[in-house]
Amino acid sequence: MSAAASIEEPLNGGGTGATVTRLLRRNSWVLVLCGLLALLFVVTKVIQPAYGPSQVEALALAALPVALAAAGQAVALISGGIDLSIGSMMALTSVTAAVLMKGGSEESAVLVVVGVLLMGLVLGAINGSLVVLTRVPDIVVTLAMLYVWAGAALLVLNTPGGASAEWLRELINGTVVSEWAPKAVVLLLVLVLVIWIPLRNSRLGLSFYAVGSNRLAAFRSGVDVSKTKVAAYAFTGLFAAMGGLSLTMSTGIGTPVPGPYLLASVAAVVLGGVSLAGGRGGLVGPIVAVFILRLVRTDLTLMGIDPNYTTVIEGVIMVSVVMVGGLVALRSRGS
Amino acid sequence: MTPPQPTPETTELLLDATGVVKRYGAVVALRDASLAVRPGEVHALLGANGAGKSTLVKILTGAVHPDRGRILVRGQERDVHSPAAARRSGLISVYQEPALIPDLDVLANLRLTQTPAAPVRTWVQRLGVHDLDLHEMVRDLPLAVVRVLDLARALAVEPDILLLDEMTAALPADLAEKVLDEVGKLRETGQSVIFISHRLLEVSALCDRATVLRDGETVGVVDMEPGAEERIVDLMMGPSDEREATPARRATSAATQVSEVPLKQTDARLRLRDVGAGLRLKEVSFELHPGEVLGLVALEGQGQDELFGVLSGMRRPSRGSLEVDGQEVHFRHPADAIRKGLVYVPGDRVEALLMQRSVRENIALPSTARPRRWGPIDMGAERERVASAIKRLQIDTRAQGEVRRLSGGNQQKVTIARWIAGGVRTLLCFDPTRGIDIRTKREIYELLRDLADAGSAVLLYTSELEEVQLACDRAVVIFGGRVVDDIPASIADEPTLIRAAYGLPRETGTVGILAGGDTGRGAGEEVTA
Lengths: 335, 529
What we know:
Largest sheet of chain B: 6 strands, mixed
Strand content of chain A: under 5%
Number of helices of chain B: 20
CATH architecture of chain A: Orthogonal Bundle
Shape of chain A: globular
CATH topology of chain A: ABC transporter involved in vitamin B12 uptake, BtuC
Largest interface: A-B, 29 and 31 residues
Strand content of chain B: 15-25%
CATH class of chain A: Mainly Alpha
Strand order of the largest sheet of chain B: 6-7-8-3-9-10
Oligomer: heterodimer
Distance between the termini of chain B: 19 Å
Radius of gyration of chain B: 25 Å
Structural class of chain B: alpha/beta
CATH class of the largest domain in chain B: Alpha Beta
């Protein structure tokens, strides 16, 4: 008991300066990203003085599925894997939800939501189990599953269609409390608070980091590496299902062809401070990074820059930010 | 003197493993291993490289499942399939490579193994580390501290059996001493320790008994009394009639006759002065002369990897100087070393070869990849050079399309052939004959001798001690990152080398005079308990 208390101690005793410094230092990259995002908002306001609440709301709505995909991808990467099938899983869960909700009552949609989320968990667990059982590299297995889930999505629904319950659409469209607080952003915050924070501090969450950081050490510490990998992919699948639901919720229909969410998720995760080698990072960084990448694109459009240059500039920004971040980290550790 | 195994009182034993067998495919790692640990004893597990020690450790810790055999804990059969289950059965292990997650802070690491923090804090201090912040990320801590922390984490849960696998190998002397002291005290609480170490002096000072493995078999259990080291070395070596095969084979190799000549007063091809690198290589000085095959003998992890890294330009030394032909050199890249005529033949062939490419391309690679030579490759000249090298080394080229289809021995010849094709002055061979057949081995010895006779200098690290007399002129022995002996091949028989490699003095009998002094412990006093 006393032992448990002394472990919790640092979390409660946040009053001391040391704890605050440590928290700041450990989350420095997320803070940098937040600063970058704030700066971008200022820039946007300068370029386009009319940029207001409704534009922010549109931005949040567009960012929501990408942010959920990035969250899922982050879990996969932290535990030392990668999930290329994330876009396909989103398409599959999206059309499944749209088909099931078509013609159904508002109330039955609750069941659909629960069912689709469970479906995501199962899809992810299948990915993870295949990785563990076949011992084929993660990237190959999930590449194969990209095609499998994409095909399944087309089997469920051949052309865009289906429907979404009204209350679900209202859940993400619009704002709450203030016109500056889009529901989509609030929903993301709630999800992070409800899912990620408890998970990160649980033994399972620690195991994700442990397996991604050093498999052998994790194994020797008594972590069941196989189960941990399956669980991590299951969470990736869960986030993919949420992303799929959000697509149906925002458009009101299901689209069987996967959107550009795979590369967008990897880009955001890398920019968000998750190590491709595993073991480092969190979910908040990637989610903030999604908004940054979106806003950059908006700004470039507002400035009237040729869309072909826009993608080039996006790529350059990504590499430079990650590179500068890496250099700063190196410098601070060397001193 | 003592019979190998005075059948133990089975009821008294804390751990009793008998008849343990483990095969990996056709390779038998353990044929009949046993280990009996009494409550409250520190028990050493010893054996030369490849004796099966590490396999037995993996089985005890649940990482590997034995094919046959029985493991009893307190008289109860134990069925353990994972390290987690082994922990629950009361056995915790601490390895040379700490099992802490670098990307989590210390507290998170403790939570991962459900270890309470308070006793860990106490233990860390008792082990001599006083300024540890438990909120620190493990990757930001010095390695020695991480090791101590790993041990403290194990001690905090008061395991019945603590398994220490080469745990002290990379600790600074003062910490190592503290650790050994505390480990010794565990006896008082009835806890047992299985202790694995290459430092025989450490073993004799700390342990009560020792189990010796050879060729996958438990060959004896020794009570640690004065003079036990000799018996342990004997057990590790095997019966003397097996050993007598060596001189007979030596006679077939005409090469060794040359070796009796004392060192010529030529200029050294390679001169090392107090070279150190990383944690393990402390301070090594020796000379390598043209026309010489110099053997290098060391137990695993005594700094030989770092030494070869430095010599081949793959890593920079942290101290000391390196001279080639009397000129000081600073290698920044393997290409620098190659330009100075130093070439590296790694023991792991996968490191050196392009497995999917042909024999010809592999042999020609160093000459075609030479810096500042772009442009098209002169195919005719290349073919000629390669053909002569293949002939010289008698490489079986039936499967020359892809190197990976060659046998191990032929692959190893290719790694050497590529340097001969380019004309080599100094060859750095790291265990080049590991896992290849005897005939090819002999061909490689002859090749090395021929190269030396033609004026090249050869440095040969070997884990097979008989090779010293088969191929070398003399042998340098490294222990704890320092040169502890320099033995002419004529007297470098296996017992002599093994003794030196374990840090024991060359003239036997008087343990304790030797360099063990760096920890300042007089081994003799504490032996009897």
